[in-house]
Specification:
Layout lengths: L3 H33 L7 H14 L3 H4 L13 E3 L2 H4 L1 H6 L1 H11 L6 H22 E3 L2
Antiparallel strand pairs: 1-2
Helix pairs in contact: 1-2, 1-7, 6-7
C-alpha cells in the first residue's frame, strides 16, 4: 500500500497529465471547434494562440505521460487507460501525427472554412490516440 506521501505524488502526476490534456482541449474544442460551429466569433488571434499552444504542448505528451500515476484525478471526467504504460511505444507513436497535423495547417487558416479543415485534421489525429488510450470515467 502507498503511504500518504506516495499517494500525493501519484495524484500530482495524474493532475499534471490531466492539466496538459485540458489545456490542449481548451485550444482545440473551446476555441477552434466553437468557432467552426459559429458559437463564438471567428478570431484569427485566438486561433493563432490556440495553434501555438498545441504546437508547444503536444510534443511534451510522451514525457508528461512517462510515469503511470496508477490512479485518476479525483472527480475527473476522463483519465488514462493502463494501456498507455502497457504499450508505451505505441502510445508515443500517436504523437508525431498530431504534431504533423498542426504543422500542416499552421499559416493556412484564414476563415471559418479553412478552420474547419484544420480542426478536422488535428482532431482526427488526436482521436487516433484517444480511441485506445483515453477512458471516460463519468
Amino acid at each position: 500500500m502507498l503511504g500518504p506521501g506516495a499517494a500525493m505524488a501519484q495524484q500530482e502526476i495524474a493532475v499534471k497529465q490531466d492539466n496538459l490534456m485540458r489545456a490542449q482541449a481548451k485550444s482545440l474544442y473551446t476555441v477552434m471547434l466553437k468557432m467552426t460551429k459559429g458559437e463564438i466569433p471567428y478570431d484569427q488571434a485566438a486561433i493563432d494562440a490556440a495553434l501555438a499552444q498545441l504546437e508547444q504542448s503536444v510534443p511534451t505528451i510522451p514525457t508528461v505521460f512517462a510515469t503511470n500515476p496508477k490512479e485518476h484525478v479525483v472527480n475527473a471526467t476522463y483519465g488514462s487507460s493502463q494501456k498507455v504504460w502497457q504499450n508505451k511505444a505505441d502510445f508515443d507513436s500517436k504523437v508525431p501525427p498530431v504534431i504533423k497535423a498542426i504543422a500542416d495547417v499552421k499559416g493556412k487558416i484564414k476563415d471559418v472554412a479553412s478552420l474547419k479543415v484544420a480542426y478536422d485534421r488535428i482532431n482526427g489525429a488526436c482521436n487516433e490516440c484517444h480511441e485506445t488510450y483515453r477512458l471516460k470515467l463519468k
